[in-house]
């Protein structure tokens, strides 16, 4: 028994010894494996080390010393740390690492140090960001798409969160894209401005006398007339000193100043710039300067000279105002007086009308006069030549002349001449109707308020005494309306179109001072959207609005209309006669004419009552249909004129007068039949 127990204990001791030996070897292997794994992990994740230790052995050794001295964990116990990493195959791994196996670059921090570290980290983050941007560029330009520690130098790493770093990179990219976009836009705008400038230079008028620059007057050299201005100033000062010298009985000096003034004025002549001055002008200016210097030495007194110049200024202003009134009167007079050739034409036509027996002659195509499927025009005029131009220009551009019908109404004085002209010069294909306004028996003073007013003695006195001084003193604003032509119902007949043409549904009204440049048939297909009048609006900024024509100080006007409402123009108007009759437009016109018995609600003429009558009943047409201003504005856009369907010579400078603006006259004269025997007999030529 004893022997057995001895053997058993010996075997037990042997097993314990072997087991202890095996565990010791296994522990050593495990320690080696951990060290190797840790080194592998260290080689693959060097980017997570502190920026002071990457790729620098000396700093690693210094880190070991700091770790040994004061950077060790606060607790001497071995702490298990759970770490995640990515192996060489890209798989995510989780391992437990002992704190004693960490490298010296790992630093233990206390939560109380976070605030201090945060304050010192701003500059490091900025430097780290710049380094990471360069590092990202290197990644994008690498050939194989992988980073190898031995092939590329290790960049300085950042302690910034990778997500924040990515956001910052994206923000920088957006900034770059936005900058590039703005640069492109700036280049496009520059190109547009350059193209507009080039286009503008092509439209400039370079034919101004005495000018050799392509630029407008505001871009000319401001010193181009310096000598001319000097000489004019010298003349003014010479007259001032001459007046003072005469008051002081300095006869010799007075004569010298007046003589020098006349010579300087003669040297200037009609010059508008230094280039147009006579060669001796500069010498004349020097001589005048010497004379003024003598006068200044003898007569100069600041208060006296200032008083004299002020008196000269006031006198000049008074003269200018007087000349403006005279000029306005003379322009109105020249515009309203019929020139001799135009007076000759209706006389010759009327004479032949009765001598050759055309009283009983009629126009063909009478069946077209009331055909609503055709294109009808209304022209109310006493000017034979102007009416012929309207008809000719319309038919020249008409695609189907045989579908056009012209309804012409004139007065008794010109009826025979108007009818004779179109009998001997019938328009090809089109139908013509010529009527006398005095034959409209329904148009009488009991029905028409404006006719009742025109027949009153007070109205006749207003018109026929307009040439008296008392009337002229009122001003030139209403002078153009103080003309007996407004006594004619031709001017107001446009408000009675449904009564004149009771069987028509739509008609195009044309003034006699227009020229047609395109086919007008598309106007009949324009949808007026329930409106009565189709017209081109004329308001631009603050011009040609209701307050220009109506008296808004009167409550009858201010309570019914808006002062900034946009105006429009007579001259080319599409009228829906069916809608006109439905809404009783003529009744509205009569109502307001009755209210304006004393002529205080609006300015004279037919446009103001037209604005009132068709208020909120006018459909705006495209501006290219009707371009106005050729009778008063010499600065119209040439391209707009050439592209317009109708050009209108509204104003005093009618194309058949010598007052006409020269550069606009050709648009009208090209449709005048200058080879006609009647025009040649009356010496009417282009």
From TrEMBL:
A single Gene Ontology CC term: Golgi membrane
Membrane topology qualifier: Single-pass type II membrane protein
GO molecular function terms listed in the Swiss-Prot or TrEMBL record: polygalacturonate 4-alpha-galacturonosyltransferase activity
Transmembrane segments: none
Gene3D superfamilies xref list: Spore Coat Polysaccharide Biosynthesis Protein SpsA, Chain A
Main subcellular localisation: Golgi
CDD domains membership: GT8_like_1
Gene Ontology biological-process entries: cell wall organization
Keywords: Cell wall biogenesis/degradation, Glycosyltransferase, Golgi apparatus, Signal, Transferase
Coiled-coil stretches: none
Signal peptide boundaries: 1-26
InterPro entries: GAUT (IPR029993), Glyco_trans_8 (IPR002495), Nucleotide-diphossugar_trans (IPR029044)
Pathway the protein contributes to: Glycan metabolism; pectin biosynthesis
Name the UniProt record assigns to this protein: Hexosyltransferase
